[in-house]
Design brief:
Distance between the termini: 54 Å
Strand content: 15-25%
Radius of gyration: 21 Å
Largest sheet: 6 strands, parallel
Strand order of the largest sheet: 6-5-4-7-8-9
Structural class: alpha/beta
């Protein structure tokens, strides 16, 4: 398996190139060779790029593209979301696939991607590359890639690990599956989408790896929530507990990105709780297909479902702590 990683150096920033150059490092099999080259965030000789879907992530992606000098052609089912981005230079489109050789897709689920593409793929031409950043079904990615290949086009499943805010700051991790040639044709795009990029194999492989990262990330977040509530139950200040945890072997980046939000009950949305619940259900479904039982993830699903019942589905996923608090209160009242 080939892993290709982009690393963002620390350096001066300016409007069109927040990261002026990136180191491209390839970790290759014994039959290949390692190589390094530099690339820039600026667009190549084809700056027009489509964006289908302007939710939290799609909007953050479009903002990054605009800052880097690309010309995004944007579409969203609710057209009012295109207005603010159009004012900044994005181009509203009735079908980005008809307008651009490369098109980014950022939608809620594979089912939504399938539904939306039904009307757009009529314009598909040989040589086009669709880049699906949706966290979705690996099997769907494989089927869609096969459909596009029959028409001379290509699919890269490229889910983004990180919140919309991390994407906006260029700190997200992009996991890419698909053929190497298509991946290379998009190399000027990758540093716009994330600070690190991994090409993990063929179609569907990135969708699978994204579910792995979401499993671990979600459990880290849930463990932090439970730890903070447990600390409070033991008479320890949650803010003091968070400080100790950050300096201990228990540290995870969720303490930096979600810890203060949990303490302040600030659930301003970076990534919706209900969307992570959708991903957890998909993780359990794919695990069951492999004959695997994921005990911790099943418990996590129940926790997220409790948070959703409490009315936090549309809130930031840090609101999972409210489900832990509710569980503590119900345990206390039942004794």
């Amino acid at each position: 398996m080939v892993l290709r990683c982009f690393f963002s150096p620390v350096g001066a920033r300016h409007r069109y190139a927040p990261f002026p150059s990136l180191c491209y490092a390839a970790l290759l099999s014994d039959t290949d060779y390692a190589c390094k080259e530099t690339c820039r965030m600026q667009p190549d000789n084809d700056p027009d790029i489509g964006v289908i879907g302007l939710g939290l992530m799609g909007t953050a992606i479009t903002e990054r593209l605009l800052e880097a000098g690309w010309r995004p052609h944007i579409w969203n089912r609710s057209a009012e979301k295109t207005g603010p981005l159009a004012e900044r230079g994005a181009i509203p489109s009735s079908n980005p696939i008809a307008d651009c050789r490369r098109v980014i897709i950022s939608l809620y689920s594979s089912d939504v991607v399938d539904e939306v593409l039904q009307k757009f793929l009529v314009a598909l031409k040989p040589g086009q590359i669709l880049i699906d950043t949706t966290t979705g079904s690996p099997e769907f990615s494989e089927r869609l890639a096969a459909r596009l290949q029959l028409r001379g086009a290509a699919l890269l499943d490229a889910p983004i690990s990180g919140s919309s805010e991390q994407t906006r700051r260029g700190e997200a991790c992009v996991i890419v599956g698909g053929d190497t040639d298509s991946f290379t044709q998009c190399r000027s795009l990758w540093p716009v989408l994330g600070g690190s990029v991994f090409h993990v194999g063929g179609s569907g492989s990135a969708a699978r790896m994204k579910l792995v990262t979401n499993l671990v990330l979600g459990l880290n977040r849930a463990a932090l929530a439970e730890g903070l509530v447990y600390a409070a139950s033991q008479g320890i200040s949650p803010s003091a507990a968070l400080e100790v945890l950050r300096g201990s072997p228990a540290y995870s980046r969720q303490m930096d990105t979600k810890g203060s939000k949990m303490l302040a009950s600030d659930y301003t949305v970076q990534a919706r709780l209900t969307q992570h619940l959708k991903d957890v259900r998909l993780i359990l479904e794919t695990a069951a297909q492999s004959g695997l039982s994921l005990t911790l993830t099943a418990a996590h699903q129940q926790l997220l479902e409790r948070a959703e019942i409490l009315g936090f589905g549309a809130a930031d996923n840090s609101a999972v702590i409210e489900a832990v608090r509710a569980g503590l209160q119900s345990d206390v009242t039942s004794h």
